[in-house]
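Incident review: delayed structure delivery

Summary: a single-chain prediction request sat in the queue longer than the usual turnaround. Root cause was a stuck worker, restarted by the on-call engineer. No data loss occurred. The affected request and its eventual output are reproduced below so the record is complete for anyone auditing the incident later.

Affected input:
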Amino acid sequence: MTEPEQRITADGGVATGVVSADLHVHGESKPVLLLADWPFTPNQPDHIHGQEQLHEWLERPQRLAARWLHGRKPHLASAVAAQARSRGWRVVRPASSGQPPPGRTPGASRGVLLIVENADDFPFAELTWLFSNAVLHQPGHPARILLIAHGPDRWPAVRAALATRYAWTDSQQIEAAGAIDPLTAR
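Output delivered after worker restart:
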């Protein structure tokens, strides 16, 4: 068993500490974000438009890859989570401090997929702190980050933060009417 690792940084009078896979902010006395396993929801669709592109993205050779999907597509996150889970991926999401974290060990999964819905609504510092979570940085286990947002405006800044982690990145606009495949990268 690996000993917990703690990293602390301070910026503008707020100290942030990362212990294993848990993320907390001290100073303003409120947690930032934790990761929790995606809740199992029965009756998810067996097939989603763009399923093969999703599988290709999950199986990319890079250890860390991120995709920014922007536009309106209801229930896309749950459908992607169900498809990834059926392919053997562990799926996690941001959660409140009241939920148990998933822990650092990815177990028998093929890798871990972090899905962030409404990514452009998160404060930038909190969103980019998610990228340092230990769950995403386990040797020998690929990690994917799917950021679902309303628009493309924040993507350049988020992509720059991901570049410091040597992540492969792409983006895609989602058409509400389904005219463009929501999981095909451009």
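Verification: The longest strand covers residues 64-71.
Action items: add queue-age alerting; document worker restart procedure.
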